[in-house]
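hiii so um. not sure if this is the right channel but i have a protein structure encoded as tokens and i wanna go backwards to a sequence. like what aa goes where. can anyone help
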């Protein structure tokens, strides 16, 4: 028994202290994982992070697939594994570019490509010319068919929601109908009303 006034001897041996330290380390890792610190990067985030610059992709002599997306978009997240697979399969033959509609940096592109819903895919040939658009979620098989046509330089397959793009006149004159300012505006990509 220890004399009064002195601290009791340590009842934990070296093995017990090492076990406690290991348990504490596991708890720290578990807490970090539960708070989101150790989750593996999701396909959508990985694709966005490794995406080439939009202007560089359009000028590098390869066809380009651009996806307008948002982090909160379930359809975008659902398509992401197929998009990632296509990016891996077509690497060096085609560029895959992701542009987040919530990033103000891409506002000019949102307006230029009339993005009013997501996911919206824009297809560009090797010369950087627009060859088509797809609005809405696509299955893996549809994405593969679309990108195969893009890489081969053939017309895009006939799928619902896929079509060629055409330009509208900047402003209509007296013979061409109402002036552009009088045309109704469309909802933006972040409005769901």
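sure thing!! here u go:
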């Amino acid at each position: 028994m220890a004399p009064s006034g002195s601290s009791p001897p340590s009842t934990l041996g070296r093995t017990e202290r090492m076990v406690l330290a290991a348990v504490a380390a596991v708890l720290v890792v578990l807490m970090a994982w539960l708070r989101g610190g150790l989750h593996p990067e999701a396909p959508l985030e990985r694709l966005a992070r490794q995406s080439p610059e939009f202007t560089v992709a359009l000028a590098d002599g390869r066809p380009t697939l651009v996806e307008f997306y948002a982090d909160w978009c379930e359809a975008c997240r659902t398509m992401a594994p197929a998009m990632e697979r296509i990016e891996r399969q077509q690497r060096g033959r085609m560029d895959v570019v992701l542009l987040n509609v919530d990033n103000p940096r891409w506002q000019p592109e949102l307006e230029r490509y009339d993005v009013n819903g997501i996911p919206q895919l824009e297809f560009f040939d090797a010369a950087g010319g627009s060859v088509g658009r797809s609005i809405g979620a696509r299955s893996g098989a549809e994405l593969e068919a679309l990108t195969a046509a893009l890489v081969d330089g053939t017309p895009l397959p006939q799928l619902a929601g896929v079509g060629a793009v055409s330009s509208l006149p900047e402003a209509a004159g007296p013979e061409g109908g109402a002036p552009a300012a009088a045309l109704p505006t469309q909802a933006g990509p972040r409005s769901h009303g």
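oh and The helical segments are 14-34, 43-50, 54-59, 74-90, 107-112, 140-152.
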